[in-house]
Amino acid sequence: IACVLSGLPESIVAAACARSGQSVLHVDSKNYYGGNWASFSFSGLLSWIKENQQKTDVSDEWDDWRKLILENEEAVSLSKKDKTIQHVEDFCFGDQDSAEGVEEAGALPKLPVFGAAGAEGLAQESEKAHSAVESTEPESPEPEKATGPKPASAREGSDAEITSENASSHSAALGESAGELEQTEAVPPEASAQEPKKITYSQIVREGRRFNIDLVSKLLYSRGLLIDLLIKSNVSRYAEFKNVTQILAFREGKVEQVPCSRADVFNSRQLVMVEKRMLMKFLTFCLDYEQHPDEYQDYENGTFAEFLRTRKLTPSLQHFILHSIAMVSETNCSTLEGLQATKKFLQCLGRYGNTPFLFPLYGQGEIPQCFCRLCAVFGGIYCLRHPVQCLVVDKESGRCKAIVDHFGQRISAKYFIVEDSYLSESVCTNVCYRQISRAVLITDQSVLNTGSEQQVSILTVPPVDLGNPAVCVVELCSSTMTCMKGTYLVHLTRPSTKTAREDLEPVVQKLFNLNTEKETKNEELEKPRVLWAVYFNMRDSSGIDRNSYDHLPSNVYVCSGPDSALGNDCAVKQAETIFREMFPTEEFCPPAPNPEDIIYDEDEIAPEESGFSNSPETKPEASTEEMSSGGSTAVEKADNEE
Asked: pTM of the entire structure?
């Protein structure tokens, strides 16, 4: 199997193939994992912004690659330029000159990580093939080299795994582990007694490694397909998660907290007792609405908003259900779709906390890297900064035989997985893409102050003009390991109708203070202050039929980039579909064995080579862990012995 690009669908397919015993080569022209699913430090994001604003042409490093194509073969050229990102605009709402000469501070406290730190470290690790996955972070990485995304930071000895057995205690365990890391940032007593200082741009640059900024903003439904896959495959051991703590709504110019669980409803001060009973009655109906078709079948052809008006719900309850629980469009969502979305929300409540959502610590970019790690543990080979020139197609059979890389190497494989962005215009002549409008803000306080600084919130802002899509706002605090203490990272997402700035800036102005002048109105002072912002449009290639691509060989499978939905179901479905087309009789991502469950054949382990006795009773426990990890370095073995 040859995979091109390391986005989430490709990484899942690669992990599933390696786990079923296939040989996998995973190449990526970029110097970081994840593609458009990646997470960056602040300096890494600035480099990414500069790269996408310049959009320089990439010349062939080896011009004679066409000589490798035989007479009975033809070459399908791949795109050399990434056209998935457009209209990138970044703004600093502070004194940017004060940051001149300021360098990014050293790395966070050393943890076992996936790969070396920074873009160059990630590229170097890819050249080491199998042992790359188990390498550790350098002792003192150079600040100026840390331009890539933060490597996966799963703490293998102490992370809280997502399993069906520990679901109820998962949130508390994550809170404790996050709290331990936050203690390293504790403010001295004399500083805490003073008034809080304003965050400056130079501080953001200096603490750039504290940021893990996602290119795509998504959350994990606690009973969604991705969580189920993480549990089934044991990939959850490589990552940690934090609960989304509050669901918010924007109504009549104010941000309000939405009661969604039974406890929230009856503890809410926003609702009177009659409204609480109305809401609980309707939510109970939604959980088993299929058993009562007579209550909704007359409204199947109408919208969900019209159906809500027939249920004798107050306007505030209709707003909460439509925009913050079902999270659907007011004009384009049918009654059945709305009921299904509400039921999905309610079914996810209570599994790991009082909200349906989880967020991976260190950002969404951790998830593709976790599956890459599983693939590498089972023999997958990874090569970053490794562009591919073309696909080699046999004229007679119409199947792809090989790829040619930028070194002029011809690499043969049976199946090929390619991300849509790599396909050239000649293949995508009939493809019509959608766009996603994205904005990322660094702010100094939360959109809703509740007395706790460590809130993870999701807010849906309905459109001013009916027919336009709503804006999904996800606000992350420092305990998610995505921003420095004293700041919040805010992601805004919606399907595009214009450029990202035109689509999202009106919402930013409603929720935040963009005024950099000293004299501001009192109502502006109450809003969180934006310190830095970036807007960009991202291509949405999901939902495109395979037949839309011209001259695509039958053994070449195309994965899409991120879609505009809040969850990750599209990527998981796509990965499973591709895997089952290639290997219909194999199980998709079976559980990886735990180290203590592995039984080794004594004849395969020679005493003189392994240094261990063949007797199971005398074999050290450390040996099992080392061998199950795919081979550890001498430094790691010494650490295990200590």
From this structure: 0.79
